[in-house]
Amino acid sequence: MKSELLESGPYLRNLISRGENQHLDFKFEINDARKVARTFSAFANTEGGKLLIGVKDNGRISGIRTDEELYMAESAAQLYCRPEIKFSVQKWFTEGRVVLEIDIPASGQRPHFAKNDEGEWTAYVRVDDENIRAGRILVNFWKGRRQEGILLNYGREEKALLDYLTEHDHITLSRFMRIARMGRQEAENILVNLLLMQVIKLDITADTVFFRLTGKHRQG
Predict the structure, then answer these.
(1) Is 137-217 a domain of CATH 1.10.10.10?
(2) Per the omega criterion (within 30 degrees of 0), is the bond before 105 cis?
């Protein structure tokens, strides 16, 4: 993958001034394809984003030294992401240095997994400026969207969940398990089905996953 070297003008400095966020990540260098694969996975599984190589965490431009950075990025996307993640690249020349901009679009093939140091495949999502592991519920939700037809058995457990959410803003998996007196696997399956039916929605923070009623199912 080749990219023409362009003068960045104010573009790059304006981009960096936003700081690391939901859609932007800085890397001083890529010295481990497996680690950067997590960022690829997180951006592709969420809303997409840009990875600037040759920029320190504080926004200072350090520049890349060789094209090895691009080769490492390609290895991350092709060898350490499953399925492979497509990206575009642009080289910017600014302040006498070269910065690599990698643009990763939101994917329609979620989930994308990244291979960790132990050889395990894990999916990530982007939350603010962090890459967070996507839990089993979210992964099964993504997989379920590829299937046709959802069968939901509206029983005691589902009623307990929806009754709780009409009185409270949100619920966690562990609280749902307690109020419905059920095991993790069964609780996860119910939550996935309700997500697929758009009865509930999922919110992720750095610490917790919450489930809320969607607007069209909230009463009052």
Answers:
(1) yes
(2) no
Asked if residue 157 lies in contact with residue 187, where contact means CB atoms within 8 angstroms, the answer is: yes
Over residues 15-32, mean pLDDT: 95
pLDDT, averaged across the chain: 92
Q: Which amino acid is at 217?
A: H
Kindly report the CATH number that applies to the domain delimited by 5-134: 3.30.950.30
Give the whole-angstrom CA distance, residue 168 versus residue 179: 13
Residues 6+ apart with CB under 8 A from 105: 44, 48, 86, 87
H or E stretch at 125 = strand 121-127
User: Quick one: tokens of 14?
Assistant: 């304006």
Over the stretch 63-93, which tens digit does the pLDDT of each residue have? 998 788 899 999 999 999 999 999 999 999 9
Axis-axis angle for helices 156-167, 173-180 (nearest 10)? 120
Spatial distance between the Cα atoms of 190 and 144, rounded to a whole number of angstroms: 12
Q: Where are the domains of the chain?
A: 5-134, 137-217
Q: Judge whether 5-134 and 137-217 match in fold.
A: no
Cβ contacts of 78-81, under 8 Å, gap ≥ 24: 79/33, 79/115, 80/33, 80/34, 80/37, 80/114, 80/115, 81/37, 81/40, 81/41, 81/44, 81/112, 81/113, 81/114, 81/115
